[in-house]
Description:
Blueprint: H1 9-14, H2 16-31, H3 41-61, E1 66-68, E2 73-75, H4 77-103, H5 109-127, H6 131-149, H7 156-187, H8 192-201, H9 206-222, H10 231-238, H11 241-266, H12 275-293, H13 299-320, H14 323-351, H15 366-369, H16 371-385, H17 391-405, H18 409-435, H19 450-468, H20 471-480
Antiparallel strand pairs: 1-2
Helix pairs in contact: 2-3, 2-5, 3-4, 3-5, 4-5, 4-11, 4-14, 4-19, 4-20, 5-6, 5-11, 6-7, 6-11, 7-9, 7-10, 8-11, 10-11, 10-13, 11-13, 11-14, 12-13, 12-18, 13-14, 13-17, 13-18, 14-16, 14-17, 14-19, 14-20, 16-18, 16-19, 17-18, 17-19
Amino acid sequence: MPASFIPTPAEYLRVAPEIILAVAGTLVMVLEPLTPARRKRWLGYLAQAGLWVALAAAVAAQHAPGAAFSGLVFVDGFATFFRVLVIAAGILVALCSYGYLRREEADRGEYYALLLYSVAGQCLMAASAELVLMFIGLEISSIASYVLAGYLRGDKRANEAALKYFLLGSFATAFLLYGIAMLYGATGSTMLEAIGGALMKKEAGLLVSAAAAFMLVGLGFKVSVAPFQVWAPDVYQGAPAPVAAFLSAGPKAAAFAIFLRVWLVAFRPVSHRWEAVLWASALATMVIGNFAALTQSNVKRLLGYSSIAHAGYVLVAVTAHSEAGTAAVMFYLAAYVFMNVGAFAVVGYIARKGERYLEVDDLAGLGARQPVTAALMTIFLLSLIGVPLTGGFFGKFYVFRAALDAGLVWLTVLGLLASAVAAYYYLRILVVMYMREPAEAAEPLPPQGAALRLALWTCAAGTLLLGIFPSVILGFVNQAAGMR
């Protein structure tokens, strides 16, 4: 083998998080049939250890930035940020899952293996500098996510969610792959920088426009923006609560990472042509998500529509097409992971076995029954609204400031109005928790496990930290926003 094709130790370090996650997931799968039923929980601890080692590797890789494997992978601040974010989401979801899976009598190793594989795919998405590798990472993450959505095989709601997610996701994947093929035909390359350079040198023709349209459809589905958002409420409602938390955090953050890479690197010379499309999609996403959430009584479905609306806010910053907009996307997604995983964790706990208590009215009296849990849920809901001293406030502030700096005045005004609508359905939950008495026949809440308490407090601390001291990551995201 020629010496130029032999990877160096630095190149292996740059892909170490993906290697560690894949090895840990495989180890969990191998040990699963060899582990007695009473010790299955140890597989979850092994998965947690794998996630923490991968997190350390992602941080270490930042100290050796650069390209790896013929430029297919590129590690910079942008890639490191999203790697750390999706691994952190995996850690929090794993913590939320221990007690949930024991309660549902579904504590098996394949759940944690799928979680590890999905996070590995998301890390690969964040660090990819080439479209085919990006697609492979997306599919690794997506296939594992499809199975996780239907993990509770005896639950018809989970089966329906997995089937819808798989069918619509496969359809969207086909659009994305067609777009990649067309872009290769138009530019002769699948490397993002080479594509951008080719589009700078020659007039973009119909084939490039068709490629951009097809890829916009595929990526729009993955981040659940209008008009490709219809899958999200059904999937979030039917999937197990920890899985719904994971789908709303990790895969969405990684999909926005490749959205930014593709749009701001490969399509940078022609991205101005698509500003009106992104503008309209962002507005429609915010309006549909917020107004549809107003009529929901199921909390998971309400949070599903809420997730759509938040994707619209992030798309506002993408539409700004600037480094400030990219930094706003990164900050917003960091805050969103903490507040949304925390909210879903509380909902999964309140739902009890079989997820029988998922209506808004089932939260009645939570402030009296479990004041600490209600207080944590209040922090998450206030952050989702965008109240000061929470991460959600600064997330929206940076998003709309980037839009104003880019001259998107009307999108900013309409986005703020849509955000004001959201306050109603979040405050409705708070009113129910603190101002209504629980039903007399209400089933008592079980004690919280240590892992769930750790996840909830970590999410609350992250939400408040980003709201009170946003500078803890603001300097890094501002620097990382100037991606290749």
